[in-house]
Every structure is written in structure tokens, then in C-alpha cells.
Specification:
CATH architecture of the largest domain: 3-Layer(aba) Sandwich
Shape: elongated
CATH class of the largest domain: Alpha Beta
Helix content: 40-55%
Number of domains: 3
Structural class: alpha/beta
Largest sheet: 6 strands, mixed
Radius of gyration: 30 Å
Length: 522
């Protein structure tokens, strides 16, 4: 059996065992009989991490070994994409990275910079759902645009076998007396491939008195994506692949416990517990991060198994910065650049405003015509009414005479806008006025009381991204219309344009045609 396993095709990335470190002080604090860490972060190839074990067999197996190029998906800070980018550079194979958003936590930008510096192409989809809708071929087939697809986390049967063989490596270290037989192996749970490999390997090589250690998987993803059933199915698929390679293993899977309690509100979001654990582990010299390892170890801290021997399997890459190209940001898709800078891209902004406006229009049609007039050049009556009603909320301390002039100031400012931008303003005002589930009302905004309008805009401000964009849009229009009024300039310390007031009847015309004063530097 071992001979057949050793004959499986590999890239030869695993040249030596990853070491095991011991941490007796923390073990004593947790009432454990022993605590250690399997340091896959110290694997020498591809900047380390358990992904190296996966890629060692995966990229040497068909169809990926023969593919002209690879494509794979992951979050912007994905360690999987880092390892694939390094492998593509090492093997001279084009690699296309498909990215979705995750919060910019610790190490995310470092990993993104490396991937952007190495990948042949980058494509950004916003979220995981958007990726599935826009590029279903990434999940439904083995190829995408002529490139061999590597699934999330590289979780394919050969990759799982690569992790399984790591447990054989661990068993030899136990035989050498480098560590005791663990009662429990703690690991992070993402796509499920690493946990499945450990369940397979522990059931095969780590049995003592017929009992295998428990594999405790602390989930970093939502329950809907990966659970205990899914991990077992991944392990069984790997066994099936081995059978097809002529390797028959009578394996009884090791016990598996999956803890989703620390997964957090969304993928890539650290919790206060995982941040605290990360700090604690780094003090021991372990390169933990709050998204995977921090959540895995936090699941152990919630109920420390007193008296047990516990092994933490370190899956991240090596600590420290990665080599990157100085111009890596220029290679990012514009929509991702905008997201990193905290602003929606123009396409995203237009889409959200237009889609929310269509929802509002649908609600208006459903509730019946309530006197919405047709748009006219400039500001329609209803548009002016929406701006005035919103200004009373956005600028509560402004006198009425200032609020009354805001719609006209907005109209004067937007008169020269190109048609698409003017359409965005109309869509924004329509969405605000007609009400949606985002705003918490289905009546006309202009018919609401002041308190109801305040609650409506607050709901947009604190709600999902489309609502926040609507709120910022109406807020900015109101502020723009207010601060254009020269009666307010003194209150904000603005001395006005350099064109003297006596020389201008229309300050915009005068400002465009006048010569600058002496000493003015343009």
C-alpha cells in the first residue's frame, strides 16, 4: 500500500517534514496535558502553508498537469491564490485569478499584492454570489475559457490525499518520540479539504487501541458552505480517487467535530475572540491570523478539553512580507481599486442606483399612481420636492430660506452634467421618493412627517450597501445646494471666489471669463 502511495505523481514540493513545536505554558493555562503545533507554515516551498501539500499532488495530476493554464477563485487575500501564483511562476504556467471581496484584515493586502504581482490576469466579481451569477462555469465545469479550473481552496481528491499523507509524516514523528500521540487535532475549516485529509490520515495512521484522535474543525465559513457532512463527502471522494489509482485503503474515518460558533457574520470577518487568540498565539511565535487559525483555536478555548493532548495544525503561509512588484495596484481591476479606496466604482454605483430605482418604480406601480409627474429638463417639481424634504433632515439647523433655495442651486449645478450622470440623479431621487424595503417606508418620501423622513434616511444610512449609497447621494446633493449659497460662506470661513461680487451678475459666467488677480498661481 505504501509503495503505491509513494508512486503517485507529485511535484516534489514536500522535501522535508514540517516541525512540531511544544507550548507547555499555554497547555498548563488551559489544563491540557500537552499542547503542540504542526508547523506547516515552515514548509520551504511556495512560501509555506498547507496549500503546498495540496498542490504537490494536485498540479501533478490530470487534468491540471497537462493544462496549458489554470484558473481559480478566492477572496482578495486568499492564501490559496498566493500558493497558486507562486506555483505558476515556478512552473511557468499562466494563472488567472478570479477574486471576490473580503474585509481588509491582517495580511489581506500582502497576499493580494503578491497575487496581483504574479497572476497572468485578475478579475473581480464583488461577492461570492456575484461570482456564481456572472461566471457559473467556474463552479460547474472543469475548464473556463480554455483554462483548467482549480476549485475553491484547491479542494479536489488529489489535494486531499496530499493532506492525508501529511498525517503519515506526523505518525513517523510520533514514532521518533518528537511528540506524543494527540487526543485531538485542531484545524481551521474553509473549503474542507484540509480537514478531510486529516480525518482520512488520522483514521489510517494515528489509531491507538482502535481509537483515532478527534479532528476538531473551527469553521471560518458559513454553515451553508461547509459542514461535517460535506467534509466526510470530500474524504470519501478522495478515497474513490485513490481506488481509481490502484490504491485501496480500508480506512475508518477519524471522529470529526465542526464548530461554526466562531465563523462570524460573514466570510473574512474577524471576531474579537479570533483577534485575541491571534495575539496570544503570536506571542508564542506562531504566525496566526484572525480569519482561519484564530477562529480554529478560539473554538478550542471555548471548551478546553481538560487533560487531553492537543495538536494545533498551522495551515497559513510563512510569516513576513512577500516579494511584490511596486506597481501591483495598477494591475487590479478598476472596480477592486475603487472598493479598496472605500468608494463604489462608477459601474457599481450606477447599477445600485438604477436597480434600487427600478424597485422603487415597481412599488409605485403596485401601489398605484399617486401623482408622480413626468420628468422634465432641469429639476422636475417632484425632484425639487424630494431634495427640499431631504434637506430638512440632512441640515436640520439651517433656516428655511436656505433650505428653500437648495433645489434651485442643485438644478443650476447639474444643468451641465452629461445625460448618464443626470439620469443617475433622477434615479437616486426616484428611489428616495418612492420608498423601498431599504428605507423602511412604502409611501412617498415627500408625504412623510419630519420624524418619518429622519427614520427613513437613517435606515438607508445604516443598512446594506445600496441604501448607504442612496443616503450618501441625497446627503451630498443637499450639502452641495446649501454651500453654493454665498449667505452661508461666512459661517464656514470661506471668503468666496476671487471675482469681486460687484463685477458679477452670474458668478459662474464671471468666474469662467475673468482673468486671475496679480500673483494668482493656476
Amino acid at each position: 500500500m505504501l509503495e503505491r502511495l509513494d508512486s503517485l505523481p507529485r511535484l516534489g514540493l514536500i522535501t522535508e517534514p514540517s516541525p512540531v513545536s511544544e507550548h507547555p505554558e499555554l497547555a498548563a493555562q488551559l489544563s491540557l496535558s500537552w499542547l503542540g503545533a504542526k508547523r506547516d507554515d515552515l514548509l520551504p516551498a511556495l512560501h509555506g502553508g498547507s496549500k503546498v501539500r495540496k498542490l504537490d499532488l494536485l498540479l501533478a495530476s490530470p487534468p491540471w498537469a497537462q493544462a496549458a493554464s489554470w484558473t481559480s477563485m478566492g477572496a482578495i487575500g486568499s492564501g490559496h491564490l498566493v500558493a497558486l501564483s507562486a506555483a505558476s511562476e515556478r512552473l511557468g504556467r499562466p494563472f488567472h485569478a478570479q477574486l471576490f471581496w473580503e474585509p481588509v484584515e491582517d495580511l489581506v493586502l500582502d497576499n493580494l499584492a503578491f497575487t496581483a504581482s504574479r497572476a497572468t490576469s485578475l478579475r473581480f466579481y464583488g461577492g461570492r454570489v456575484g461570482m456564481g451569477v456572472r461566471a457559473p462555469g467556474l463552479f460547474l465545469g472543469s475548464s473556463w475559457r480554455g483554462s483548467a479550473v482549480i476549485g475553491p481552496g484547491g479542494t479536489h481528491p488529489p489535494a486531499v490525499v496530499g493532506v492525508m499523507l501529511a498525517v503519515r509524516e506526523l505518525a513517523l514523528q510520533i514514532e521518533q518520540g518528537l511528540l506524543p500521540m494527540p487526543d485531538r487535532i485542531v484545524v481551521a475549516l474553509g473549503s474542507g479539504g484540509t480537514a478531510a485529509g486529516l480525518v482520512l490520515g488520522a483514521g489510517l495512521w494515528l489509531r491507538r487501541d482502535g481509537k483515532a484522535p478527534v479532528v476538531q474543525a473551527g469553521a471560518a465559513v458559513e454553515r451553508v458552505f461547509t459542514g461535517a457532512w460535506r467534509v466526510r463527502q470530500i474524504a470519501l471522494a478522495a478515497l474513490g480517487w485513490l481506488n481509481n489509482q490502484g490504491v485501496s485503503l480500508p480506512v475508518e474515518l477519524a471522529p470529526l467535530q465542526v464548530d461554526h460558533s466562531g465563523a462570524g457574520p460573514a466570510y473574512g470577518s474577524a471576531s474579537s475572540a479570533s483577534r485575541e487568540v491571534t495575539t496570544r498565539l503570536r506571542a508564542l511565535g506562531l504566525p496566526a491570523e484572525p480569519i482561519y487559525t484564530g477562529k480554529a483555536f478560539a473554538s478550542l478555548l471555548r471548551r478546553p478539553p481538560a487533560g487531553e493532548r492537543v495538536l494545533l495544525w498551522m495551515t497559513p503561509r510563512r510569516a513576513g512580507p512577500l516579494p511584490t512588484d511596486p506597481g501591483w495596484r495598477e494591475r487590479l481591476p478598476p472596480s477592486l481599486q475603487a472598493r479598496l479606496e472605500g468608494r463604489p466604482s462608477r459601474a457599481r454605483r450606477a447599477f445600485l442606483i438604477a436597480s434600487t430605482g427600478m424597485l422603487a418604480f415597481g412599488a409605485w406601480r403596485l401601489l398605484g399612481d399617486r401623482g408622480l409627474p413626468a420628468p422634465v429638463p432641469g429639476l422636475a417639481d417632484w425632484e425639487a420636492a424630494v431634495i427640499r424634504a431631504a434637506a430638512e433632515v440632512v441640515l436640520p439647523k439651517m433656516p428655511g430660506r436656505v433650505l428653500d433655495r437648495i433645489p434651485a442651486a442643485v438644478a443650476a449645478y447639474s444643468r451641465s452634467f452629461p445625460t448618464p450622470m443626470r439620469a443617475e440623479i433622477s434615479g437616486l431621487l426616484l428611489a428616495i421618493d418612492q420608498g423601498t424595503l431599504l428605507s423602511g417606508h412604502l409611501d412617498r418620501f415627500t408625504r412623510l412627517s419630519l420624524a418619518q423622513r429622519e427614520a427613513s434616511l437613517q435606515a438607508l444610512k445604516e443598512g446594506p450597501a445600496p441604501g448607504r449609497i442612496l443616503y450618501r447621494g441625497i446627503r451630498d446633493l443637499c450639502l452641495l445646494g446649501a454651500w453654493q449659497q454665498d449667505a452661508l460662506w461666512d459661517s464656514i470661513g470661506y471668503e468666496g471666489p476671487w471675482v469681486p461680487r460687484a463685477e458679477r451678475s452670474d458668478r459662474y459666467v464671471a468666474l469662467a471669463s475673468a482673468s486671475p488677480p496679480p500673483g494668482w498661481a493656476s
